[in-house]
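Continuing the batch. This is chain 6 of the set; chains 1 through 5 are on the previous pages. Same settings as before, nothing changed between runs. Recording input and output for traceability.
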Amino acid sequence: MLSRKLKQLCFPGRAFSYGLNWALAGRGVVVNDKAFQNLTNSELQQKGATIAESLSGLPVYVKGNLLGGSSDISKAQYAKLLKQVTAHLSSIANVFVQDGAVGSSSECDAKVRVISDSPSAVLKLSSILWKTPSRAVSHDSCPLTVYVTTSISPGVVNAVGLRAQGDNGFIAADIERSSLILCGKGFSDANGVKEALAALSGPVIIARGGLLLCASSGIIPSVAKLSPGQAAYHFLAGYQNGKFFPAYSKFAYIDALELAKAFMSKLKDHQILSYLVNAKKGETSITGKDLLEMVPSMLAKNFPPFEPKGGKLQEKYKSFLLSKFRGMPKEFSF
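Output for chain 6:
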């Protein structure tokens, strides 16, 4: 049995790498025939990849300290699901491996390895992840693993006791295992995938000294310069379209107030300029191109300091934040 497994690991065909196959085996996936790693978009298309239709609202199950929005999955459920998924990936002829990262800084990002049964899923996910060398993932101390099973039997979902969105599938993550499972068309829900990746990568990015980095109302100017304390205050509140979404409030393992304090310290220590951009005026939204056109003026320091033009929103901020957070620094201000 061991001899047969070694042959599968070491002689998978022309898409062959001792190191990669051993690494995949360490993640529970024994390469049955070939493992294609980090193919370009054109190479993926040659393997049959197509641009998948975007979906939204698929169920997102996260095992760990996630608050609100998504349902929980038990340790036993996730373990059972992972066993079924790795068995499926080990049974098919070809697997597709894509390396990437969450975060743009190589010093504090979270490395990610995708193992998929579909080139189309890899094509979709490659647009979400930052590019990073394969060597960086292989040598990382705690990379995240994303398992993609587009063709796994629906009976697996029923056996585990999870709810899928019709035939579209679902997303499941385990923070402790640093792993993410995308079943069915789960890879097509970009927002759901990003939410799950944020939950998984948060502890890694923070441990490496990084920051997990939310305003629109008629009384807020289009663009205004903020002090470090003001930037931290608005970051913490996360005011959008009349509602408050405190920074990373879904993730109980992240202390949002401490994160905002760290954000303020970073701005002060490195003398980083910060600005408040009102992303929406009436029915018109600011585009990425609009933001790029603002950069020269920001660098030239042409925008005035932020001065609120009305008192109701300021009081709304104060009432909300005082009800949620105790011990806010005096430097935090509207």
